[in-house]
Structure of Glutamine--fructose-6-phosphate aminotransferase [isomerizing]:
Amino acid sequence: MALEGALKLKELAYMHAEGFAAGELKHGPIALIEDDLPVIVIMPSPKGSATLHAKLLSNIREIQTRGAVTIVIAEEGDDTVRPYADHLIEIPAVSTLLQPLLSTIPLQVFAAAVAQARGYDVDKPRNLAKSVTVE
């Protein structure tokens, strides 16, 4: 999902974005974090892997200590993340199999909003193959 969100920001808003797995934070991406950098975190359901959920909470804390702004997409009712999210986007609590589908919606809306704020036409992204553009 993170890769999809990063791709949408590139395609629509023409800005660099990077998606990566939670375990990769300390393998490069953390070096790029600085004051006021927006970082979007897709929080896994607390109904799934407790280890992965705890890892993401730890990552959010590390990101915040470096001054970044955290935008967290999390399941409704996941109160463990609330204290660590500068901005919280809640998605409905569904089966863990469906959560990735719901997580993509705020990412796509965010990319479209950023693109429009930058003055770009989201219906006609430049330099994309015909198979992915709106005609």
Notes: The first strand starts at residue 38 and ends at 42.
